[in-house]
Design goal:
Strand content: 25-35%
CATH architecture: 3-Layer(aba) Sandwich
Number of helices: 7
Shape: globular
Distance between the termini: 11 Å
Structural class: alpha/beta
Largest sheet: 8 strands, mixed
CATH topology: Rossmann fold
Length: 207
């Protein structure tokens, strides 16, 4: 299935494309609405500030194509900041509206003894709810790579969090609401476990 990797000047797009290619998925880096409409899935990467990312999506006129894609029942997958954008709002440097596909908000991680901010490095995943996205994952034994200072706080944790990391607070690692999926960690930097998760994503997209 051809997959659009959204180019909105936020994130390392080539690494994501390479990771998709490794599992046999054709990733097309684009901001062209027609190309997005022709793709069966959309990946929204992201590194940086929430408000800048939303501004760029608006500036490149990508909000409507993404919304149409989701309403058509196609898969939208957000990575790191891209996952945070799936939520209603963020309080990073103010209060900013997100895409609103998953109910909840994005808040700052607060440093505590033994827990530095940003949360950077390998953390194990705790499976919260069984789902095709968590297939072949080993509860509390599989590690993935995080780099972030803000985290998602879903309105309904039980309904929308598939797996989380314990970082003094439960940090949602994989979230899902119907055809909208996000990972706070970077699968493209998470070695074999990340590849397994992308393979799960491929199966979900094709189902």
């Amino acid at each position: 299935m051809k997959t659009a990797i959204i180019d909105y000047d936020v994130g390392n797009l080539k690494n994501v494309a390479t990771a998709l290619d490794a599992i046999g998925v054709e990733g097309v880096i684009t901001r062209n609405p027609k190309v997005i409409a022709d793709c069966g899935a959309v990946v929204l990467p992201g590194v940086g500030a929430f408000s800048d990312a939303m501004d760029n999506l608006e500036r490149f006129e990508l909000l409507t194509p993404i919304d149409k894609h989701v309403k058509a029942g196609k898969l939208l997958y957000g990575i790191c900041l891209g996952m945070q954008l799936l939520f209603d709002e963020s309080d990073e440097d103010g209060l900013f509206r997100g895409l609103g596909f998953v109910p909840g908000r994005v808040e700052a991680l607060v440093p505590h003894e033994g827990y530095k901010v940003p949360h950077m490095g390998w953390n194990n995943l705790i499976i919260h709810r069984k789902d095709p996205m968590t297939r072949h994952l080993n509860n509390r034994e599989d590690y993935v790579y995080f780099v972030h200072s803000f985290y998602a706080v879903p309105t309904d944790f039980d309904a929308h969090v598939l797996a989380y990391a314990d970082y003094d607070v439960p940090v949602p690692g994989i979230v899902r609401k119907d055809n909208v999926i996000g990972t706070q960690f970077h699968p493209e930097k998470s070695a074999a476990v990340g590849q397994r998760i992308l393979e799960n994503l491929k199966e979900v997209a094709n189902s």
